[in-house]
Amino acid sequence: MRLGLALGYWGRGPDAGHVPLAQEAERLGYHSVWTAESWGSDAFTPLTWIAARTSTIRLGTAVAQMAARSPTATAMHALTLDHLSGGRMLLGLGLSGPQVVEGWYGRPFPKSPLTATREYMDVVRQVLRRKAPVAVDGRFHPLPYRGPDGTGLGKPLKPITHPLRAGLPVLLGAEGPKNVAQTARIADGWLPLYWAPSRPEVYGEVVRELPEGFLVAPMARVKVCDDIAEGLLPVKAMLGFYIGGMGHAARNFHADLMARMGYEKEARRIQELFLAGRQEEAVLAVPDAFADEISLVGPRERIAERLELWRAGPVTDLLALSPDPHSLRVLAELNS
């Protein structure tokens, strides 16, 4: 199992510690570093900044939101950064949810998410292969565009720039069993959310029969500390925000996943508190048990024991959410 560093997205502004942390991860032998986006900083620009200050560590987006760019624009970002970094790019994509797609990007959330994802992937793959002009007779991502409000002058095009790698790895963030099953068919890897190594079945039976060479790269908070409850607080804050605030009360994929993992009552309570403006109470309502099973928090010996569960399953890349160089070093030592 390889290690990655997950930096996430910015808060109120850029984090001056991200580049030194990525450089330390590279020195420690980490395989990859990952950036994200929500509705603030984008995923590709910070990754490019890191690429210019590192030399070997792979560069991943976890995730770049599909609604933020047309699939051809996303492919252009990926092939450009792949060239500039000497072939280190890992493209992680996610559909996001209705709140973000419609509220931030101003476009309808697809009524058939699986089809929209499949078409998006098709376009990205065609651009990266560069075998022929890109053409898709699609419902959500048609190329060329033939809609009633178009000019009718569009024509299929090939990228001017030759991609460095036709097989640049593309991973998908997926939560529901049908989405995960499709991901195993059409992508090179999967970015699971809330991975609990003791219960992979919540994602469906496909997890037991993944293709050879398929990447499984979940994120996990990693913190070496004596006080487990205190170490779990950032995990609970993240969960409170995602489960309570990243979606509508009637449609929240994160809350639905938590419910499938056996915490349905708690998930609905977190939503209720968060949407009522009681964010601190929502965070405290996150069960320690849930935060703990998707994390690696505690003394070194405890993390070493729990790390064996992660290595025993299908995970190929553990992406550590940890701003702490000491925790990154300990994890590298334990995984060596």
Automatic annotation (TrEMBL):
UniProt cross-references to InterPro entries, sorted A to Z: F420-G6PD/mer, F420_OxRdatse_Rv3520c_pred, Luciferase-like_dom, Luciferase-like_sf
NCBIfam families xrefs: F420_Rv3520c
Protein name per the record: NADP oxidoreductase
Domain spans labelled Luciferase-like: 18-314
Segments forming a coiled coil: none
Classification via Pfam families: Bac_luciferase
Organism of provenance: Streptomyces roseochromogenus subsp. oscitans DS 12.976
Alphabetic keyword roster: Oxidoreductase
Molecular-function annotations in GO: oxidoreductase activity, acting on paired donors, with incorporation or reduction of molecular oxygen
